[in-house]
Design goal:
11 strands; 2 domains; six-stranded mixed sheet; Diaminopimelate Epimerase, Chain A, domain 1; 12 helices; globular; alpha/beta; about 325 residues; single chain; about 15% strand; inorganic pyrophosphatase (n-terminal core); five-stranded parallel sheet
């Protein structure tokens, strides 16, 4: 049995697209919303099974990885988050790079020697690694219009991963992956007027129009904190809106705060684009927090701790 375990955002989906285009195999798909990262908890294996893990933290899943290895499965782990201590095991292969300008799909692109690079470019744009995406695109002889199309697709796929539950999303990530997997090229997906992209793109621009009317909760010369209303559209747009604000003010750090379904907040943090460091350290100071140097988050921030978060956020980037 093969298991493909992947983050439901653009990076996780496009990483798996590249791998399965290059190495087709039937598999059990295990995924979820962007913040659903302890995905290996759902995987029960038998000796000889293969488990591919893409774009989820090894540190958060270490006990499950150890269990899966003990049960006799082989694991191929590709990721760009802080891994913690990587276990040594004959049945574990890892491809991990925590550089702030790298995403999982770019690591897969490196592994496949660029065979399906256009999907890696989509993912890099989705992760707001615009410079890395443009660098990867430089060898493909793409027009400015084509690069813009890949960027828009990446943003829309990434947008679809945000929410407090799968029901908040336009499409469950496994369904979106299956739809995309019918196309060898992202341009074929974009050009298919019968594809689900039309609905996804419309949803993104509708939510973006609504969030543009929200004013910051707190702002100074170094940081911006936006508290969004308790609405489905707000939960969907939260992460992508953080990227949008970061691109508009690259010298500032941004935090987008949304309501979660436990009565608290979910926080998405973007470090300044001119200095993509510290987001993971800041968020790790709070229970359920973590992520990458340039982009991180807190899954469950109690309401009463929001002032504490704003204070630490401002100090971190002040």
């Amino acid at each position: 049995m093969n298991y493909d375990v992947f983050n439901g955002d653009a990076d996780g989906i496009c990483a798996l697209l590249q791998l399965r285009l290059a190495e087709p195999k039937p598999s059990v798909l295990v995924t979820g919303i962007k913040r659903d990262i302890e995905l290996l908890d759902r995987v029960n294996v038998k000796p000889g099974d293969d488990v591919t893990v893409l774009d989820v933290s090894l540190q958060k899943n270490l006990p499950h990885v150890q269990r899966i290895l003990q049960q006799g499965a082989r694991v191929f782990y590709v990721d760009h988050h802080l891994p913690g201590e990587i276990p040594e095991h004959a049945s574990l292969r890892t491809l991990i790079d925590t550089d702030a300008d790298v995403c999982t799909s770019l690591l897969v692109d490196r592994y496949l020697q660029g065979r399906y690079r256009s999907w890696a470019i989509v993912a890099a744009f989705g992760d707001n690694l615009n410079q890395s995406a443009e660098q990867a695109a430089s060898g493909l002889n793409l027009s400015v219009s084509e690069i813009s199309q890949l960027k828009e697709l990446g943003v829309c796929i990434n947008y679809n991963s945000y929410g407090s539950c799968v029901e908040d999303l336009h499409f469950p990530p496994d369904q979106l992956y299956r739809a995309l997997s019918a196309y060898k090229s992202p341009f074929d997906f974009i050009g298919d007027q019968q594809s689900i992209y039309k609905k996804l793109r419309a949803g993104y621009y509708d939510d973006l129009a609504q969030v543009s009317r929200v004013r910051p909760e707190y702002e100074n010369n170094h940081v911006v904190v936006v508290l969004l209303p308790d609405e489905i559209w707000a939960r969907r747009i939260s992460g992508v809106y953080g990227n949008e604000l970061a691109n508009q003010a690259p010298a500032k750090a941004h935090a987008i705060v949304t309501h979660n379904n436990q009565g608290g907040y979910q926080v998405s943090v973007r470090a300044p684009l001119v200095n993509k460091t510290g987001a993971d350290e800041l968020c790790s100071e709070f229970p359920s927090g973590g992520g990458r140097k340039g982009a991180a988050g807190i899954n469950r921030l109690p309401v009463e701790r929001l002032p504490d978060f704003i204070k630490k956020f401002s100090e971190k980037y002040g």
